[in-house]
């Protein structure tokens, strides 16, 4: 089911891109035009950082990201992108050993078609293919002492896993000045699933295990991105 969904999204995206190219033939002719008998490509690039909000394991989470990309003829960017996340918002007012948080990151290749980049407001379609890692751990605000006796802050209580990620998105970009753009974006993070177990001792010093949902990282993202470069 997951493979079918990803294939459908990819097919829809490339179909949409093809239709845009057909409708904008006059503009597309400007991408690779002859000059002095040679094909010339206008080169650009940008670096960016982003702040976002998402859901991790059904809880609100902070998403921090960065990008570096080369822009070919203003209309297509290639590069690298990565993001880190955590959903540790434990307030520390009570002792609940069964609580845990997820933190990690992912990154990989970035492909970003840009529609009408010279307009003051336009859209782009950033797509990330890559991999990442995630950890299940006790809330950072705990004092590290098990009420049943002994410390639980050691590797035994942390579990980690790796995953593959595919994240298609849509951004509305604003050309603030020639070298600076702001983008408001939405995307969806697909993963191949995670395998995590969080272990803890309850108040009676009995070991318990919580199985983390394998789809805990699959979710929508909302973000604001600040881009600096030559567009």
Give a description of the structure:
It is a single chain. This protein is 11% helix and 55% strand. With 231 residues, it is mainly beta. It has 2 domains: 32 residues; 187 residues, Beta Barrel (Porin), CATH 2.40.160. The strands form 3 sheets. Strands 3, 4, 5, 6, 7, 8, 9, 10 and 13 form a 9-stranded antiparallel beta sheet that branches. Strands 1-2 form a two-stranded antiparallel ribbon. Strand 11 and strand 12 form a beta hairpin. The two termini are 39 Å apart.
Summarize this structure as a short list of keywords or feature phrases.
mainly beta; Porin; two-stranded antiparallel sheet; 2 helices; 13 strands; 11% helix
Spans of at least 5 consecutive residues with low confidence: 18-34, 141-156
Strands, count: 13
- What coarse outline follows from CA principal-axis ratios? elongated
* Biggest beta sheet attributes: 9 strands, antiparallel
CATH class of the largest domain: Mainly Beta
Helix content: 10-25%
Look at the structure and give the mean pLDDT. 80
CATH A-level architecture of the largest domain = Beta Barrel
Q: Which fold name is given in CATH as the topology of the largest domain?
A: Porin
What is the count of DSSP helices, taking H or I runs of 4+ residues?
2
* Helix-strand makeup class: mainly beta
């Amino acid at each position: 089911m997951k493979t079918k969904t990803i294939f459908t999204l990819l097919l829809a995206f490339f179909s949409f891109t093809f239709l845009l190219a057909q409708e904008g033939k006059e503009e597309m002719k400007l991408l690779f035009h002859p000059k002095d008998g040679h094909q010339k490509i206008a080169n650009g690039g940008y670096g960016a950082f982003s702040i976002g909000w998402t859901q991790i394991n059904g809880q609100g989470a902070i998403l921090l990201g960065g990008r570096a990309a080369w822009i070919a003829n203003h209309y297509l960017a290639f590069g690298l992108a990565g993001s880190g996340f955590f959903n540790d918002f434990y307030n520390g007012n009570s002792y609940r050993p069964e609580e845990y948080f997820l933190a990690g990151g992912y990154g990989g290749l970035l492909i970003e078609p840009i529609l009408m980049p010279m307009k003051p407001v336009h859209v782009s379609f950033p797509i990330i293919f890559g991999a990442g890692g995630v950890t299940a751990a006790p809330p950072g605000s705990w004092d590290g002492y098990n009420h049943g006796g002994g410390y639980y802050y050691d590797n035994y209580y942390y579990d980690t896993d790796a995953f593959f990620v595919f994240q298609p998105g849509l951004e509305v970009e604003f050309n603030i000045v020639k070298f600076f753009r702001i983008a408001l974006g939405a995307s969806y993070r697909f993963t191949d699933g995670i395998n995590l177990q969080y272990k803890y001792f309850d108040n009676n010093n009995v070991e318990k295990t919580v199985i983390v949902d394998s789809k805990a990282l699959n979710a929508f993202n909302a973000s604001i991105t600040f881009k600096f470069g030559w567009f």
